[in-house]
Amino acid sequence: MPYVIIVYDVKAERTPKFLKYLRRYLTHVQNSVFEGQITDGTLTEVKTKLESMLEVGESVMVYEMSSESYVDRSVFGEDPMDDEQFL
């Protein structure tokens, strides 16, 4: 199952639409940044949907790794990916 980081740059008034959609699949880690594991099929669906949501001048970047073990991630401060914050 791939590990992805998705970053988007859209008009401020359209941000909630992308935020709501991506929260269904990934963890919201910072402003317009999401990450997590996702199936290949779901990733294809998400990429297609995101592309269809874009307007002129907006962009989405999807970074794909074959697994989370290939991500060297450093966090300073509170980590949104830390499950213990939800206890």
CATH domain class: Alpha Beta
Termini gap: 26 Å
Structural class: alpha+beta
Low-confidence stretches: none
How many helical stretches?
2
Q: How would a textbook summarize the main sheet?
A: 4 strands, antiparallel
Broad shape: globular
The CATH topology label is: Alpha-Beta Plaits
CATH architectural arrangement: 2-Layer Sandwich
What would you report as the Rg, rounded to the nearest angstrom? Answer: 13 Å
Strand order of the largest sheet: 2-3-1-4
Strand segment count? 4
What is the mean predicted local confidence, pLDDT?
87
The count of domains is 1
Written account of the structure:
This protein has one domain: Alpha-Beta Plaits. The longest helix is centred in the middle third of the chain and has 14 residues. The chain is α+β, with helices and mostly antiparallel strands and 87 residues long. A hairpin with a 2-residue loop joins strand 2 and strand 3. Helix content is 26%, strand content 26%.
Observed structural traits:
alpha+beta, single chain, Alpha-Beta Plaits, 4-stranded antiparallel β-sheet, 87 residues
Brief overview, please?
The protein is α+β, with helices and mostly antiparallel strands. 26% of the residues lie in helices and 26% in strands. The chain has a single domain (3-68), classed as Alpha-Beta Plaits (2-Layer Sandwich), CATH 3.30.70.
List the helices and strands and how they pair.
Blueprint: E1 3-9, H1 15-23, E2 27-30, E3 33-37, H2 40-53, E4 59-65
Antiparallel strand pairs: 1-3, 1-4, 2-3
